[in-house]
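Assemble and predict.
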Amino acid sequence: DVKVTQSSRYLVKRTGEKVFLECVQDMDHENMFWYRQDPGLGLRLIYFSYDVKMKEKGDIPEGYSVSREKKERFSLILESASTNQTSMYLCASSGDRVQGYTFGSGTRLTVV
Amino acid sequence: KQEVTQIPAALSVPEGENLVLNCSFTDSAIYNLQWFRQDPGKGLTSLLLIQSSQREQTSGRLNASLDKSSGRSTLYIAASQPGDSATYLCAVPNQAGTALIFGKGTTLSVSS
């Protein structure tokens, strides 16, 4: 089974800190994704990547950046954390178009 | 723009009941449809993936159907158990095939 591992389950950070959320997948998938999930708003796409060093903005990229230096690793960066970035962050990966998506266990980030 | 709707938003049933969760989507030109389960505070677990050429998929007590022409999918859960209590999400790829579009989910509670 494909495994997507998010390095932290819970994080508490202070306003203004630079925050790194790490995600690693073990099935050589080309595509990787970062979503955030908020009550009443559902899952919203922040960024995705379809290859090493390639990235595309999703629906809500403001305040975030990403890095994909290796195929298996996709990092989400909050340049200067703000309280409105308190959320559940979910990483996912997929292969070609007929394959489904596999999600990680999520990171609950609280910015105080 | 693809939109995904899930009805009902919440459902409470006694143990042992058979139940149906509904998902509808506005653009029938999809590659596949995926059903996920999410426990509180956790990531998404893939339950079933139905390709556009398929009518249904089964896994244990779960059966998902797909009717592309009408833009609908159903998730049938047989003989429900308290352990089935969770939020169930359906998702389809966007038109470019670059990300999943999610419904808001159905939160199921099965009482013993």
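Chain A has a mean pLDDT of 94.
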